[in-house]
Amino acid sequence: MRFILVDAILEWETGKRARGIKNVSLSEDFFDDHFPLKPIMPGVLIVEGMAQISGLLLEESMKRDGKKVKALMSLMEKVKFRQPVYPGAQILYECDILRMNEFGGKVSASATVAGEAVTECTLLFSFHEFGNPTQEAIRARVLETWFAGAQHVS
């Protein structure tokens, strides 16, 4: 199973906020088992998509300060699931940095479909230094795809 749950970044403001999308397709592997006669995107994968865009925002914000870190999600607070997500939907992820220091960051994140709330939570991340050239090359390719149509504020 592919574990990239963001298709594109729409808006980006380093150190502040980001918006991205996920196009939910019936061909996704997880729909085989969740659920065969009524496919619903697993809530944990919606949270993972929010964590991917939020972690990236924190990592890139730390790069601005000259630090190369990997943001690892360490805590989810106040997670609320409002409605299911079905194939054919386009999820809009939004995240705003609440706090950040050299040890980690806290982000408010939400997911909506057609303007309706799907999931919301607060995510906490811890920062860890890394230096894997292979991982960096993969990450650079993913970022190039994600940012292709993004509106950069700063």
Structure description:
- Helix content is 23%, strand content 42%.
- With 154 residues, the chain is α+β, with helices and mostly antiparallel strands.
- β1 (8-13) and β2 form a beta hairpin.
- The longest helix is centred in the middle third of the chain and has 22 residues, at 43-64.
- The termini are far apart.
Properties at a glance:
154 residues; 7 strands; 23% helix; 2 helices; seven-stranded mixed sheet; alpha+beta; single chain; Thiol Ester Dehydrase, Chain A
Task: Give the gist of this structure.
It is built from 2 helices and 7 strands. It is of the alpha+beta class and 154 residues long.
Question: Topology, pairings included?
Answer:
Layout: E1 8-13, E2 17-23, H1 43-64, E3 69-81, E4 90-101, E5 104-113, E6 116-129, H2 133-146, E7 151-152
| CATH fold descriptor | Thiol Ester Dehydrase, Chain A
Q: How many domains comprise the coordinates?
A: 1
Strand order of the largest sheet: 3-6-5-4-2-1-7
Quantity of strands, as a count: 7
Taken as a percent bin, the fraction of beta residues is 35-45%
Average pLDDT for all residues:
91
Largest beta-sheet characterization: 7 strands, mixed
CATH architecture: Roll
- Helix fraction, binned, reads 10-25%
Task: Give the low-pLDDT segments.
Answer: none
Radius of gyration: 15 Å
**Structural class, from helix and strand content?**
alpha+beta
| Element string (H = helix, E = strand) | EEHEEEEHE
Tell me, briefly, the overall form: globular
CATH superfamily: Hotdog Thioesterase
